[in-house]
Amino acid sequence: MNETARTDKWLWAARIFKTRSIAADACKNGRVSINGVNVKPSRPLKAGEVVSVKKPPITYSFRVLKCIEQRVGAKLLPEIYENVTDPKQYELLEMSRISGFVDRARGTGRPTKKERRAIDHFVDPALFGFDDDDDMFDYDDDIE
């Protein structure tokens, strides 16, 4: 067993990224940090270090248990790293999944009637402290 491993190879071997080139691009673009410092793909990784990976909308954190450069089966992953991601990050992920229909992806077209009603229900004026009887914009006050 190696004492060190390249960061991009470890990220690929630990199944955090699908391909090694995607892992290397993430390192080059500053989405991977080790112990709080952004790293290059070739930086040696040692056991015990904490690797943080930004995959919007959250940042995953992993403690390295074993340095490997060959991809392993999914059942062996608990021997390779320990997930130390903050639980608040998972809450953020769940919130983005729930409210994901408000920010529609470009090119998905107009919302259906059902989706429109869901959006209107989600962005209900009662959420912002207005009742149905209150007028959000009282234009009579501006005229006088």
Describe this structure in words.
- This protein is α+β, with helices and mostly antiparallel strands.
- Helices cover 33% and strands 19% of the residues.
- It has 6 helices and 7 strands.
- It has helices spanning 7-13, 20-28, 77-80, 87-98, 113-122, 139-143, and strands at 4-6, 32-34, 37-38, 44-46, 50-55, 58-64, 81-83.
- The strands form 2 sheets. The protein has a 5-stranded antiparallel beta sheet with strand order 3-2-5-6-7.
- A hairpin with a 2-residue loop joins strand 2 (32-34) and strand 3 (37-38).
- Helix 1 crosses helix 2 (20-28).
- The longest helix is centred in the middle third of the chain and has 12 residues, at 87-98.
- It is elongated and about 55 Å long.
- The protein starts with a strand and ends with a helix.
- The mean pLDDT is 81.
Quick take:
The longest helix is centred in the middle third of the chain and has 12 residues, at 87-98. The chain is elongated.
Quick tags:
144 residues, alpha+beta, five-stranded antiparallel β-sheet, two-stranded antiparallel sheet, 6 helices, 19% strand
> What average pLDDT do the residues reach?
81
The assigned structural class equals alpha+beta
Strand content: 15-25%
The number of distinct helices, counting runs of at least 4 residues, comes to: 6
- Radius of gyration, in Å, reads 23 Å
Low-confidence stretches: none
Order of helix and strand elements from N to C terminus: EHHEEEEEHEHHH
The largest pleated sheet is described as:
5 strands, antiparallel
Which sequence of strands runs across the widest sheet? 3-2-5-6-7
Helix content: 25-40%
Give the CA-CA distance, first to last residue. Answer: 81 Å
Shape: elongated
| Number of extended strands | 7
